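Everyone, carefully examine this protein record:
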Amino acid sequence: MSHDKRAIEFRWDHLQLCSADAEATAAWFARCLNAEIVRRPGRVDLRIGAINLFITPLAHSNTVSPADASRREGIDHFGVTVDDLDAAFAHLTHCEAQIVEPIRQIRPGVRACFVRAPGDVLVEVLERRPAEMTFQ
C-alpha cells in the first residue's frame, strides 16, 4: 500500500481546553476575545472566528479520552478532520507516529484516533460523517 501524504488532507477541527470552571473560562473568552459561547446539552463551548474551542470540565468530566488520567488545566489537545480515517491511520502508522489510542467510534457519525506529537502534544484525528450523526 502506498502512503502518499499529499492524498490525505488534514483540516482544522478544534482545540480542546480543560478547566476547573468551564463557565468562567467561557465567560473570560467571550469578554476578552469576543468569543461566541456555544451551548450544547451538558456542556459549554466557544467559537472564535472559524476556530472551535471545546471545554472539558476537570472536576466532573463525563468524557473519556486517553488523557483523562493526567488532565490538567489548559490545552488538552487539538483536533483535525480527514475524509478517510483508515487511510490517515495507515499514514500515521507508516510515519511511526506514537499511537495513543487507535481508531474508535466516538458517537454515531464520528470516529477518531489519538496520536502524540513531539513536545507531548496530543492530536485527535477525526472522521465526521454528518449524514450518520444523530443528536439525542
The helical segments are 22-33, 85-94. Strands lie at 11-19, 36-40, 43-48, 51-57, 74-81, 98-107, 110-117, 121-128. The longest strand covers residues 98-107.
